[in-house]
């Protein structure tokens, strides 16, 4: 059986305002702008991880527990404090779960991002 290798993965998030989304991810979450294509598409990167942002609307109704991205991190408590200091919208406060500590934030477009202690 032939197999294949995935080199990287870049989930795509819909955003209503590309400039605002780029500012949020670069200023609040320390991503770097990797590329921008015209006025509707951009890629951001952090620590070898890539996320694409595309101008558009979310097609799903989201609840607090609906996640768009999960980041495995070390020192989740420090990151939690840092994002509170940066006035990031915390939609699920830091909590202990059977699989570890976690918290959720929302970007300006309502995309839910989880930070999970690895």
Topology overview:
Blueprint: E1 12-15, H1 18-28, E2 32-37, E3 41-46, E4 49-55, E5 69-73, H2 76-85, E6 89-97, E7 100-106, E8 112-117
Parallel strand pairs: 1-4, 5-8
Antiparallel strand pairs: 2-3, 3-4, 6-7, 7-8
Gist of the model:
The protein is an alpha/beta fold. It has 2 helices and 8 strands. It has a 4-stranded mixed beta sheet, with helices on one face. The protein has a 4-stranded mixed beta sheet with strand order 5-8-7-6.
Structural features, described:
The protein has helices at residues 18-28, 76-85; strands at 12-15, 32-37, 41-46, 49-55, 69-73, 89-97, 100-106, 112-117. By secondary structure, the protein is α/β, with parallel strands linked by helices.
Largest β sheet strand count, sense and barrel closure = 4 strands, mixed
End-to-end separation in angstroms reads 33 Å
Number of helices: 2
Shape category: globular
Which stretches are low in confidence, meaning pLDDT under 50 for 5 or more residues running? none
Mean pLDDT comes to 92
| Strand ordering within the main sheet | 1-4-3-2
Q: Would you report the number of β strands?
A: 8
**Could you spell the SSE succession in H and E letters?**
EHEEEEHEEE
So what's the oligomer here?
Answer: single chain
Percent of residues in helices comes to: 10-25%
Strand content: 35-45%
Which structural class matches the secondary elements?
alpha/beta
**CA-atom Rg in angstroms:** 15 Å
């Amino acid at each position: 059986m032939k197999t294949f290798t995935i080199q990287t993965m870049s989930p795509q998030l819909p955003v209503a305002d590309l400039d605002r989304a780029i500012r949020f991810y670069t200023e609040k979450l320390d991503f770097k702008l990797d590329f921008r294509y015209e006025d509707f598409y951009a890629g951001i990167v952090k620590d070898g991880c890539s996320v694409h942002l595309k101008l558009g609307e979310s097609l799903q109704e989201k609840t607090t527990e609906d996640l768009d991205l999960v980041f495995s991190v070390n020192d989740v408590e420090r990151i939690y404090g840092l994002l509170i200091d940066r006035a990031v919208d915390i939609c699920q406060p830091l909590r202990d779960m059977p699989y570890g500590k976690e918290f959720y934030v929302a970007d300006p477009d309502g995309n839910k991002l989880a930070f999970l202690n690895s």
